[in-house]
Amino acid sequence: MNSLPKVHTGFQSSTEKLLDWNHPMYKLYEKAKKFGGWNPIDIDFSVDRQSVLNSGPKERELVAQLVALFGAGEEAVTLDFLPVLYTMANEGRLEDTIYLTTFLYEEAKHTEFFARWRQEVGMTEDLSKYHTDNYKKVFYEMLPQAMNALYTDNSPEAQVRALTTYHMVVEGMLAESGYHSFRLGFQATGLLPGMIEGIKNLGRDEGRHIGFGTYTLRRLISQDPKLYDVFTETMDGLLPYAIGLINDTIAITEGEEMYGVDWTIMTDYAIKQYNTREASISKAKDHFDAYLEIEEEAEAIIE
Ligand SMILES: [Fe+2]
Ligand SMILES: [Fe+2]
């Protein structure tokens, strides 16, 4: 269970090693400093405001639902990420910890982005009613439970469960699919340019986040291939709720095109993302002695 060290036995930055500048997570940190500096307050939401004012009730409701899911989703991943940072720091993984300081800052900024958008366009009513039972199961229960378990159990199994829930399903499947649909639905129409600008920035940040999750899951599974079963069990346990919450969201369209888009593609895209994540992690179980190779692969993901 919990074998976290209670005292420091030395500090890496006082040794000849300094920092491992070639560590994949250190490289991710450099990328975050370079590309993660965007500011939601700089984005102009005036066209978005006009579009929301002019939209029909059904169109407005679709946007309200999407914002209700993604705004709360970003809040959940902001509030629930700390146990991973805590675990990496307690294991003395300095480069991972340094990178994760940018990770949490970025999730906070994503939460700010949706709150700012709602305020600027005047969509300030309570949107909690759009959180269906499937949504609540994932974001109110399964995510915080998997993450907070790390405070009392830092075993590799618990880490795989937490990272699979957070990085593979919530970020890699749900957020990726949602933001893909946003771009598809609103980019061509030009109706929500502020939203699209924010989502493009957000998507770049999420690419780095998923890079961390993929790298860490592969590291863990390469050291103990039996953990691959923990990974697939966690994925399978989340799948029905993840698909369920997407279907709940697109039900309003009744299979008709809205904003020129057939929103049922969201489900297909999510399943595709699910399969991509599973294939990407499955590689690690055959390479349990090849830590260096995994580092190279992780770098390829990050690029
Ligand atoms: Fe995010
Ligand atoms: Fe993220």
Folded structure, characterized:
By secondary structure, the chain is mainly alpha-helical. The protein has one domain (20-31, 42-302): Orthogonal Bundle (Ribonucleotide Reductase, subunit A). It is 71% helix and 0% strand. It has 11 helices and no strands. The chain has helices at residues 24-35, 46-54, 57-80, 82-90, 94-121, 133-148, 156-186, 193-223, 227-250, 265-282, 291-302. The chain is globular and about 60 Å long. The two termini are 35 Å apart. One fe (ii) ion binds at residues 74, 77, 107, 110, 206.
Task: Give the helices and strands, then pairings.
Blueprint: H1 24-35, H2 46-54, H3 57-80, H4 82-90, H5 94-121, H6 133-148, H7 156-186, H8 193-223, H9 227-250, H10 265-282, H11 291-302
Helix pairs in contact: 1-5, 1-8, 3-5, 3-6, 3-7, 4-5, 5-8, 6-7, 6-9, 7-8, 7-9, 7-10, 8-10, 8-11, 9-10
The chain binds fe (ii) ion (FE2) (2 copies).
Share of helical residues: over 70%
The percentage of residues in β strands lies in under 5%
- SSE series: HHHHHHHHHHH
> What is the distance, rounded to the nearest whole angstrom, between the alpha carbons of the first and last residues?
35 Å
Q: Mean pLDDT across all residues, rounded?
A: 91
Major sheet details: none
Quick one: how many beta strands?
Answer: 0
Shape: globular
Structural class: mainly alpha
Fourth-level CATH superfamily: Ribonucleotide Reductase, subunit A
Low-confidence residue ranges? 288-292
Kindly provide the radius of gyration, computed on alpha-carbon positions and rounded to a whole number of angstroms.
20 Å
CATH T-level fold name: Ribonucleotide Reductase, subunit A
Associated small molecules = fe (ii) ion
CATH class: Mainly Alpha
Give the name of the CATH architecture. Orthogonal Bundle
Number of helices: 11
Q: List the domain count as a whole number.
A: 1
